[in-house]
Amino acid sequence: MTSIEQLIDGVLKGDRRSIAKAITLIENDLPESQKAVSLLYPHTGKACVVGITGPTGSGKSTLIQKLVEELRRRGKTVGVVAVDPSSPFTGGAFLGDRVRMQELSTDKGVFIRSMATRGSVGALAKATKDAVKVLDASGKDVVVVETVGAGQSEVEIVKVAHTIVVVLAPGLGDDIQAIKAGIMEIGDIFVVNKADRENVNKAMLDIEAMLNMNPASEKWRPPVVKTTAITGEGINVLLDEIDRHRKYLEAGAIDTRRRQRVETELVETIKEKVAEAIVDDLKQKGELDKLVQKILAKEMDPYSAADMLLAKRLKRFKTG
Predict the structure, then answer these.
(1) CB-based contacts of 137: which residues, under 8 Å, 6+ apart?
(2) Is 196 in the same domain as 105?
(3) 125 contacts 92 by C-beta, under 8 angstroms
(4) Is there a contact between 221 and 236 (Cβ–Cβ < 8 Å)?
(5) How far apart are CA 305 and CA 296, in angstroms?
(6) What CATH number does the domain containing 113 carry?
(7) Which of 209, 225, 251 is the last residue of a domain?
(8) Residues 6 or more apart from 16 whose CB is under 8 A from it?
(9) 26 close to 127: Cβ distance less than 8 angstroms
(10) How many domains does the chain divide into?
(11) With the C-alpha atoms ordered 300, 305, 311, 316, is the resulting torsion angle positive or negative?
């Protein structure tokens, strides 16, 4: 048995060290990472994947901590992937989430990992999807993915999660504007956290009003849940809604979502590999440097250069 096969065997047995090594392999994009994901893939698809998103200051990390604690009380094993902004100095993840959830790290039924976005477009690190696969294959019943901040890029979470929870809090400014920024359409459950603050009822009414303005094409009507994460108030209600959404998906909608997610991942992978192959070929032939020089001299713009290269390679492809 090769070392990579031994690693995969450890992941499938739920060994914490093997899980950590496999995620590191993927996060660092090492040569063996693709083989690791390929070997794990047949063992995925059993975990309930919950995405938690929302603006900074809404209390997502505290909410996740309480969710994990309640899931453990219900006998569920849990994996957490906290996607952090990259440190401008080291490129690594800020470990604030793991510090806040350190009490959970000693629980053998919980695995927590912070991952840096490392400059990737959007709030989700490129390796996040594969890290979720590792935790899924390791036997975790529920995998929670927390994204940084809020904004248009948060819609990327639909590529990872089955159920998407959008967390807001009163007093963060224009609550309506916060949920207009691309995430209103993707939220399966809306949470108004820090419910002990003023204007909590107004925030809930605002969300309900927007849901009425944007009727979903599906039969699922996103519920609006009120929580106070610090005290644990509303956590049981939120988990019940997550479970209700899971049952709704299992009744048929999950097949459509799974196909969309697989198709999106396949297209993105093809684009990535084609781009890598073209760039490597250009570098080997010295064409990339020539094009860069032309662009620097204003003899050509990047878009025209890319169009020219693609046209040339497509012509070769068609002619065989």
Answers:
(1) 11, 12, 40, 41, 43, 44
(2) yes
(3) no
(4) no
(5) 12
(6) 3.40.50.300
(7) 251
(8) 108, 111
(9) yes
(10) 3
(11) positive
Write out the two tokens for 262.
């697989």
* Domain shared by 50 and 198, yes or no: yes
Structure tokens at 108: 């053998």
d(CA 194, CA 192): 7
Contact 124, 157 (CB under 8 A): yes
**pLDDT tens digits, one per residue of 52-107:** 988 777 888 889 999 999 999 999 999 999 876 544 433 444 445 455 566 777 88
> Do the Cβ atoms of 34 and 128 come closer than 8 Å?
no
Q: Letter for the amino acid at 185?
A: E
Q: Where in the sequence is the domain holding 295, given as residue range(s)?
A: 267-319
Does 102 lie in the same domain as 87?
A: yes
Question: What are 86's strand-pairing partners?
Answer: 93
Tens of pLDDT, residue by residue over 271-312, are 888 888 888 888 888 888 888 898 888 888 988 888 888 887
Quickly list DSSP for the chain: --HHHHHHHHHHTT-HHHHHHHHHHHHTT-TTHHHHHHHHGGG-S-SEEEEEE--TTS-HHHHHHHHHHHHHHTT--EEEEEEEPBPTTTSSB-THHHHHTGGGTT-TTEEEEEEE-TT-SSSS-TTHHHHHHHHHHTT-SEEEEE-SS-SGGGGGGGGT-SEEEEEE-TTSS-HHHHHHTTTTTT-SEEEE--TTSTTHHHHHHHHHHHHHHS--SSS----EEE-BTTTTBTHHHHHHHHHHHHHHIIIIIHHHHHHHHHHHHHHHHHHHHHHHHHHHHHHHHTHHHHHHHHHHTTSS-HHHHHHHHHHHHHHHHHH-
